[in-house]
Each structure stands twice: as C-alpha cells, then as structure tokens.
Design a protein that fits this description.
- The protein is of the alpha/beta class.
- It folds into 2 domains: 13-327, Divalent-metal-dependent TIM barrel enzymes (TIM Barrel, Alpha-Beta Barrel); 330-381, no CATH class.
- 46% of the residues lie in helices and 9% in strands.
- The chain is built from 15 helices and 10 strands.
- The protein has helices spanning 21-24, 42-52, 61-64, 71-88, 115-134, 157-178, 202-209, 224-229, 234-243, 271-283, 302-328, 330-339, 350-354, 360-365, 370-381; strands at residues 17-20, 56-60, 94-96, 139-143, 148-149, 183-187, 196-197, 218-220, 251-252, 290-292.
- The strands form 2 sheets. Strands 8-6-4-3-2-1-10-9 form an 8-stranded parallel sheet. A two-stranded antiparallel sheet has the order 5-7.
- The longest helix has 27 residues, at 302-328.
- The mean pLDDT is 96.
Length: 385
C-alpha cells in the first residue's frame, strides 16, 4: 500500500507538487519585523526544489523580473531562468501578477476608482501573461489582493464588480487574440489586506464566473487559508468547484480560524481537515498541481526553509497513504454502507412518491454511527489503526 521510496513518502515529479518563488523565497518579513533570511535567486530556488522532488515552480511577474527592469535585463533574467528549468526538468504550470504591492494599487487594481490605475493594472497583467506563456504556464491565477474597501462609502460594490468583470473579460479576449493555451483561475479571500474584499469566497467566485463573456475560460484557485479565515470548511468549497468542473488550481497551506493570513505548512495545524481535503482530491483523481502557497516560520534559517518545503510534500504523501487505508478499511466501509440505508432506486414518479408510506418512527429513531466512524478515522490518522 505504501508508495515507492525509502520509507514510502519521498516526493517525485509525477506527484505534481509545486511551490511559488514567493513561498520558499520568503525572507521572513512580517508587519512588525524586517527580513531574517537573505533573498534567494530564482534559479537557486528552481534547482533546490528539483533536488527535493518537486514538479515545478510558480511565480508572480515581479518574483522573477524586478519592477522597472529594462527590456535587456528582463530578457537576460528570463533566459537564465529558462536555462535552470531546462537543466532540472522543472516546469512553470502557473503564473500570476503582483497587483497589490505597488502603492498605485492602494485602492485596488481592477476595482480602483481611478480609471488610469485600472488601465495600468491591465497593462501589467498583459505583460505578465506573456511572460507566463513564454515559460510554459497554462494556468493564470488572478488574486485581487487590493480589490476591496475599508469603508462602504468609497464604492458601490455593483460598480466595482462591473469593473472587475470588464477586466477579466478584457484579459480573456487578449488570450483568445494571441491564441494562448491559457485558462484563468480566480482566487478568493475574505479580508486582509483590505478591510473587506470583493468576491470573498470560492462560492462568490463561482457565481461571478457565470456572468463573464467567456466563463469556459475561467475557473477558481481556492486557498485553504483564505477559506478558513472565513470560518469555512475548505474541502466543501473545493468539492463545489470540482462538481462544477471549475477547479483549475489549488493552494495548499494551513490556517487557524480567526487569525490573520498565516500560510502555515500544509497539515501542520489541522491534520483531519487536511486528510479529508487530500481524500477529496485523490478520490476524484483530480489531475492538477498540488501547489503549496505557504511560508516557513520566521524562526527558520535557510536550511529550515528547505525542511518546510520537504515537509509539505511529505505530509501530503502520508495523508494520501492514509486515504488508501481509509478506503480499504473493512469496518469504516461497513459503517458507511450501513449509513446509506440501502440502495436508492431510480427516481420515482410524482404520484408514486405522494403515495409512499414512510415509517417515521423508525426514521426518527435511527442513529448513523458517525461518532464511531469519526473515532476510527482519528485512530487511523493517529497511527494505531
């Protein structure tokens, strides 16, 4: 039942694990303290992640090409980065744009009240799309990091959403005009850095997608931490996206409810929640990237960062093995079968249903043994089953 490897949990490229340049490259800065680690060159990140068994690396435009770089500087950076990718076999499955760091985006990018800012955000995104496609990306994530308000007096949300829709429609038309093989994945977040963010959850994003001119080109990129910030069960949002055929990408990390955006190592805070997420992805045979959008603790030196990266992938593989054990456990499967109450037949006619007699006393009295089922799940996760 164990995967191949020294102890069964060594990552390999076929597992489709990816990291962002901004994740392992995070220098440990926080709102109250300066960086604790030196900056890492993107090429060094590629080579180390390849050594650890990752499939690829993702990036914001400015993670690779600094803002203000000349065309010659840009081409040199990209050429050296592509050389590192070629040397290691690493891929760039996803790219995105930084539309939140520059002070110009203080009131938003696609939803800024200033039409010049909205136009600049589109210009920056077009260039970033070109960069992503050049590097081989087929998914483009849009995270509206500043799309929101501190006071509702600032904007009518209907107008702001219309601006957002206009921007996504424009980007879709650009991709179509260039004949790029690229899909968009919208990423939700309920709050931080703005006081209240537009399109705050995956459900909001799914509804928004169907108002677009080309909804077939647009899906979602749910992030565990973002949904948990809203107090939601992440696997439920992912399941809705899967059921709709809109799970184009996913961000794996950890988060405690009610906290700021922590971006903890995947599985480190809620093993049971992480288990059921892995179960959902593996049982559905979802073919996409398992992307870790998280950061090492600020306490860590560079060696600790690579421990964090290796641990993220290892935890996923351990949980994947637990999923196989859950699915093969006779007692667990028996409890699930008994909870079904027998197999349902074909959909009945209206008149037949109206005339069906139900034993309400029996229905009201039955238990579902979910306490036992949950205990067995915990014993499996705790390694005693």
């Amino acid at each position: 039942m164990k995967p191949h490897g020294k102890d069964g949990y060594e990552p390999r490229p076929e597992h489709h694990f990816t990291f962002g340049l901004w994740t392992v490259g995070n220098p440990g800065r926080d709102p109250f303290g300066e960086p604790v680690r030196p900056a890492l060159a993107p090429t060094a990140i590629v080579r180390k992640l390849a050594e650890l068994g990752a499939y690829g690396v993702n990036l914001h435009d400015n993670d690779l090409v600094p803002a203000g770089a000349s065309a010659a500087e840009r081409d040199k950076i990209v050429r050296e980065f592509k050389q590192a990718l070629g040397d290691t076999g690493m891929k760039v499955p996803m790219a995105t744009t930084n539309l939140f760091s520059d002070p110009a985006f203080r009131d938003g990018a696609f939803t800024s009240r200033d039409h010049r800012v909205r136009a600049y955000a589109l210009q920056k995104t077009l260039a970033a799309i070109d960069l992503g496609v050049e590097l081989g990306a087929t998914t483009y994530v849009c995270w509206g990091g500043r799309e929101g308000v501190e006071t509702n007096a600032a904007k009518d949300p209907r107008t702001a959403l219309a601006w957002y829709r206009e921007a996504v429609n424009y980007l879709c038309e650009y991709v179509r005009s260039q004949r790029y093989d690229l899909r968009f994945a919208l990423e939700a977040k309920p709050n931080e850095p703005r006081g209240d963010m537009f399109l705050a959850t995956t459900g909001h994003m799914l509804a928004f997608i169907y108002t677009l001119d080309h909804p077939e080109m647009v899906g979602v990129n749910p992030e565990l931490a973002h949904e948990r910030m809203a107090g939601l069960d992440f696997s439920h949002g992912v399941a809705q996206a899967l059921e709709a055929g809109k799970l184009f990408h996913i961000d794996l990390n950890g988060q405690q409810v009610g906290r700021f955006d922590q971006d903890l190592r995947f599985g480190s805070d809620d093993a049971k929640g992480a288990f059921f997420l892995v179960k959902l992805l593996e049982d559905s045979e979802w073919p996409g990237m398992r992307h870790f959008d998280s950061h090492a603790y600020r306490t860590e030196d560079q060696a600790g960062v690579w421990d964090f990266a290796a641990g993220s992938m290892r935890t996923y593989l351990i949980l994947k093995d637990k999923v196989a054990r859950f699915n093969a456990d006779p007692e667990i499967q028996q409890l699930l079968a008994e909870a079904d109450g027998g197999k349902a037949g074909a959909r009945v006619a209206f008149n037949e249903l109206r005339n069906t007699k139900f034993d309400l006393a029996a229905l009201r009295a039955r238990g579902y043994a979910y306490e036992r089922l949950d205990q067995l799940t915990m014993e499996l996760l705790l390694g005693v089953r």
